[in-house]
């Protein structure tokens, strides 16, 4: 019987896997681009982790899958990423009552009960504004590497307004700022602000209760994090690796199932 | 999408099919019997005072129900596109746009479209869209349009509001006398209202059976078996059908038979059904043991028709329709449902088509959650247009919600 527990989160942009040991500590983790076959990416990442630890597939006792690819992944159980995200964050921050998660195509606000149960949540609907994809499109339009846009945006002198809530139209707005000769930093500050505004307004549906944890790939963007903290008027905690928290939650559930 | 139902079918479904087929056969062949019998055909809104029309021997037809038929028949998107090509916005109500589209796309419209009306009757107790929709129909068919304007009720109905509506009923009565060539017969109106009251009372009693644990019916049963209450209020056929249904549902309760094999979670539904995905959507709940024990939508037809002066009674009934009332009223109604039906949560369909139903849902949701402590989920879709339904995001929300409820 295996003594390890696997959480697999196949997201729209990124696939994450987290391996827990018997004590519930993270033994290994990996992330990769989901691309066309998230399931195969997840398999490859898992095989890599096991290899690295000198383990065999049979050493994994239970696997829980989450994220958009959860249904077709051969796991012992599939769970929604909202439930897994809540569990992962409650494990890292026992005092957390609100989670703001901005991923590739989803942004969500989750309100937690003590213990990590979901009390309420709100999500973006049928629109990529306010998500990682939005930032990716804007980074492309401005020819700035995605990882650099946050820091660059913080150097803005005169933030541009990106008023549109639509990714496609916002890109046109960005382009018109470019033609008007606005510095990249100013435009990026507007872009980060627009993402934060979208999520801040969503949070009014669930209510905000401290501690607030900001997670998901976009939490690594210092520009969005700063703008969000400013708009919400309170401090945000950011996990050390904000990309893997839902996969961590899935792995914790896997351990609970054993 | 699988059409397989994961719950117990009702024997009454056979009678339902027979009853509805008979109604639509009469409707389709109205041109053969309507004129000889002096019985005009009217297209009416769901909240129109049908009792008065029936008292004038008018055959009522419901474009809103037809909109649901188009949707389950998978032609809504194409019909809407036909209307959009004429310049109607994609943001309009899809019952309205599919209805307008069906005027030109008779090649794909069920029954080749509804039969040509002799008159149109619209009441704005359900929304304001019906006015413009019916005006468009009136221009297209060049037939008279009668409008009943029911003032929105921020609180209880006032004597002034009631009098305002009664006056319009009187006007409508004289218009109907002219259109039909018949004299208004108060005795006949009272008879029809008596039948209507019997039907709505039966519907109310059937719905109340679902307070039982486990519930004898699921939301899909309510949505399907509401068809006669929409089109056959004020008729003996309506009474006959709901007597049968009541017998069957009552029997289920006495025998402890449940709609779902394994009822674990009891939920309340808010808003019109998602017709294009009815079974696929509700299956996400039934497969996890979640049953919709009641809803605000089909409950709209469990109205009371009071005694007293018939026009005054109709004025009150049709003005007090829940969609014509405050968010506060609607929150109280939902809270009452949750308590009476011992529900564990509620699901709101934010219906892109139906603005009056959907725009205030977030306010209602927060109030209901605060007062009952049970969680509420919002799913975004459309009652008729499959283009507004995003399967994966919806599945994600439903799953997370049910996981939090312990399913």
Automatic annotation (TrEMBL), chain A:
<dbReference type="Pfam" id="PF01869">
    <property type="entry name" value="BcrAD_BadFG"/>
</dbReference>
<protein>
    <submittedName>
        <fullName>Benzoyl-CoA reductase subunit BadG</fullName>
    </submittedName>
</protein>
<dbReference type="InterPro" id="IPR043129">
    <property type="entry name" value="ATPase_NBD"/>
</dbReference>
<keyword id="KW-0408">Iron</keyword>
<dbReference type="GO" id="GO:0051536">
    <property type="term" value="F:iron-sulfur cluster binding"/>
</dbReference>
<dbReference type="InterPro" id="IPR051805">
    <property type="entry name" value="Dehydratase_Activator_Redct"/>
</dbReference>
<keyword id="KW-0479">Metal-binding</keyword>
<dbReference type="GO" id="GO:0046872">
    <property type="term" value="F:metal ion binding"/>
</dbReference>
<comment type="subunit">
    <text>Homodimer.</text>
</comment>
<dbReference type="InterPro" id="IPR008275">
    <property type="entry name" value="CoA_E_activase_dom"/>
</dbReference>
<dbReference type="InterPro" id="IPR002731">
    <property type="entry name" value="ATPase_BadF"/>
</dbReference>
<keyword id="KW-0411">Iron-sulfur</keyword>
<feature type="domain" description="ATPase BadF/BadG/BcrA/BcrD type">
    <location>
        <begin position="6"/>
        <end position="254"/>
    </location>
</feature>
From TrEMBL, chain B:
<dbReference type="Pfam" id="PF06050">
    <property type="entry name" value="HGD-D"/>
</dbReference>
<dbReference type="InterPro" id="IPR010327">
    <property type="entry name" value="FldB/FldC_alpha/beta"/>
</dbReference>
<protein>
    <submittedName>
        <fullName>Benzoyl-CoA reductase subunit BadE</fullName>
    </submittedName>
</protein>
<comment type="similarity">
    <text>Belongs to the FldB/FldC dehydratase alpha/beta subunit family.</text>
</comment>
<dbReference type="GO" id="GO:0016836">
    <property type="term" value="F:hydro-lyase activity"/>
</dbReference>
<keyword id="KW-0479">Metal-binding</keyword>
<dbReference type="GO" id="GO:0046872">
    <property type="term" value="F:metal ion binding"/>
</dbReference>
<keyword id="KW-0411">Iron-sulfur</keyword>
<keyword id="KW-0408">Iron</keyword>
<dbReference type="GO" id="GO:0051536">
    <property type="term" value="F:iron-sulfur cluster binding"/>
</dbReference>
């Amino acid at each position: 019987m295996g003594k390890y527990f696997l959480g697999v989160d196949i997201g729209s942009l990124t696939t994450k896997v987290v391996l827990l040991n018997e004590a519930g500590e993270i033994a290994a983790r990996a992330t990769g681009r989901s691309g066309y076959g998230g399931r195969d990416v997840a398999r490859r990442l898992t095989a890599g982790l096991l290899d690295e630890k000198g383990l065999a597939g049979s050493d994994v006792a239970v696997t829980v899958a989450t994220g958009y690819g959860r249904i077709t992944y051969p796991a012992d159980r599939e769970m929604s990423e909202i439930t897994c995200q809540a569990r992962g964050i409650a494990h890292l921050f026992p005092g957390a009552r609100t989670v703001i998660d901005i991923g590739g195509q989803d942004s969500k606000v989750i309100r937690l009960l003590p213990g990590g149960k979901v009390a309420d949540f709100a999500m973006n609907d049928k629109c990529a504004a306010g998500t990682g994809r939005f930032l990716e499109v804007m980074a492309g339009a401005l020819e700035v590497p995605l990882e650099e846009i946050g820091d660059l945006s913080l150097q803005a002198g005169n933030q541009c307004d990106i008023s549109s809530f639509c990714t496609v139209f916002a890109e046109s707005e960005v382009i018109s700022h470019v033609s008007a000769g606005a510095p990249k930093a100013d435009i990026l500050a507007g872009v980060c602000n627009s993402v934060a505004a979208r999520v801040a307004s969503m949070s009014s549906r669930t209510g905000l209760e401290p501690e607030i944890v900001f997670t998901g790939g976009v939490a690594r963007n210092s520009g969005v994090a700063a703008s969000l903290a400013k708009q919400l008027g309170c401090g945000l905690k950011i996990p050390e690796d904000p990309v893997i928290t839902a996969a961590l939650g899935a792995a914790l559930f896997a351990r609970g199932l054993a | 999408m699988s059409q397989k139902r994961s719950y117990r079918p009702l024997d009454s479904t056979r009678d339902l099919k027979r009853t509805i087929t008979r109604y639509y056969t009469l409707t389709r062949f109205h041109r053969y019997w309507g004129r000889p019998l002096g019985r005009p055909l009217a297209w009416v809104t769901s909240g129109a005072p049908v009792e008065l029309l029936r008292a004038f021997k008018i055959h009522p037809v419901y474009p809103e129900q037809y909109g649901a038929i188009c949707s389950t028949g998978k032609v809504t998107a194409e019909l809407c596109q036909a209307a959009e090509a004429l310049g109607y916005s994609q943001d309009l109500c899809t019952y309205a746009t599919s209805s307008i589209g069906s005027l030109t796309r008779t090649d794909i419209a069920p029954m080749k479209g509804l039969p040509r009306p002799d008159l149109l009757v619209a009441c704005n107790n359900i929304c304001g869209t019906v006015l413009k929709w019916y005006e468009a129909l009136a221009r297209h068919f060049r037939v008279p349009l009668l409008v009943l304007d029911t003032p929105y009720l921020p609180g209880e109905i006032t004597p002034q509001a009631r009098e305002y509506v009664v006056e319009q009923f009187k006007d409508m009565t004289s218009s109907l006398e002219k259109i039909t060539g018949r004299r208004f017969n108060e005795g006949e109106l009272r008879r029809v209202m008596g039948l209507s009251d019997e039907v709505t009372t039966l519907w109310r009693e059937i719905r109340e059976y679902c307070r039982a644990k486990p519930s004898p019916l699921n939301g899909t049963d309510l949505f399907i078996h509401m068809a006669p209450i929409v089109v056959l209020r004020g008729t003996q056929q309506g009474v006959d059908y709901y007597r049968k249904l009541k017998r069957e549902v009552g029997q289920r309760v006495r025998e402890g038979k449940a709609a779902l094999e394994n009822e674990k979670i009891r939920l309340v539904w808010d808003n019109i059904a998602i017709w294009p995905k009815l079974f696929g959507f509700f299956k996400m709940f039934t497969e996890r043991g979640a049953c919709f024990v009641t809803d605000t939508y089909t409950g709209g037809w469990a109205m009371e028709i009071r005694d007293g002066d018939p026009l005054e009674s109709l004025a009150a009934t049709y003005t007090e329709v829940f969609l014509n009332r405050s968010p506060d009223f609607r929150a109280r109604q939902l809270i009452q449902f949750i308590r009476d039906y011992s529900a564990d949560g509620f699901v709101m369909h934010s219906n892109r088509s139906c603005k009056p139903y959907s725009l205030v849902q977030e306010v209602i949701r927060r109030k209901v959650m605060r007062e009952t402590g049970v969680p509420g989920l919002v799913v975004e879709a459309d009652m008729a247009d499959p283009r507004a339904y995003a399967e994966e995001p919806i599945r994600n929300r439903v799953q997370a919600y049910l996981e939090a409820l312990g399913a």
